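Pair request: fold both.
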Amino acid sequence: MLGALRQLGARYDRAALQPPEPSCATQAVAMQGRAAWRALRVWCLAGSSPLSARLTVAVLEGSDAAGAHLLAQALCLERDGSLQLLACHGAAGRLALRLKTKLHDATPWRERQPSDAWDAGFLPGTTAGLQALARFEPRRPTLLVAQGLSTPALRATCALLHSRQRHFGHALRLLLVPATPGLNLGWPVTRIAF
């Protein structure tokens, strides 16, 4: 019972994550028809049940940095429920969706559905952000986007998450945008072409 109450009170960790840009919502919907979008979504949802909660890493590869950024924004907005929220009619519909999300958070035995809201955001790539990530406890499945991080910051972030993953009660997905040439993380990485 205490765990469920704690889960109801859990909030988005703005010290460890920067939320996606809501202004990208219209462009995000347009991205959903692309093959890279579908591949990212499949990767994100694969093995996201509490019984298989582990860190998986994907690299978005391509030469279009602006397009890759928009695709990462789109995936975040879809995963965190922002697009569902925008589709709601009126304040009552938005409140009902938020309450449903909190109810799902408080019932960990419930099988996760693809439509369930996750937490999603961009890693700040700063020393303070890395320290916040060291304390990060996901309240629900979480998509982390590492965009434009230096190679040392990216290595430190990946090593930190990899070492802590067994303590997480939810799936964690780390998307690297763009690919860092020659980066070897020492564990499997899904490569998705954009």
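--- second member of the pair ---
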Amino acid sequence: MNPRVIRTWLMARPRPSMLRLTTGDGEPQDLRPNRSFLKTAETIEAMNPDLIEAVDKDNNLLRAMNLHEPETDSGGEHAKLPSGLEADPQALMLTHFADLVHRAYAHSTDVAFTKMVELVERMGDRSDAIEQRLERSEAAHRRLVTEQVDDAFDRAEQIAEQAGQDAGGGMVEQMAGAFMQGAMGTGPAPRGGPVKAKGKPNGKADG
């Protein structure tokens, strides 16, 4: 069986969630389809099963294909001439030429479709890989921003605690200094300057 035929069968809607392959001994094997239908078809061809069953996520049978059935010719059968033209060599030559052109176009179309499907599958795989890299980059960026915010909050808390400790220490020093000055009688001078003594400047008291 040609992998191209298997891939076309796999790509039919609805797409299978699981493939059940039955070999000659009758023991079925489950195979999960790959993102690339061509690789899946090549794997199926290498396993050489007798029967392929496509099932959905609920294990319901979608369709089946017997790989040992004779493969039909993709180019189609030869064009048949009317009975009156079978003896005409020119009609036979023209019919043969048209048949060759038809087969060439059928083959080229088949090859072009195969290449197009492969290209689309590769583009899909590349898009998936790009999306996965973007998701990982966004997750790493979010973690970095979160760590930076947490570090900023920690530094702000440390600065606030240090400022509180410095302010508290200054108040204690001021209170201790005021207590020592009061105890030693060396308190600050009263406002308005020194107190003047009563009496005359010569020291004699008023008579």
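Observation on the second member. Residues 3-66 form one domain.
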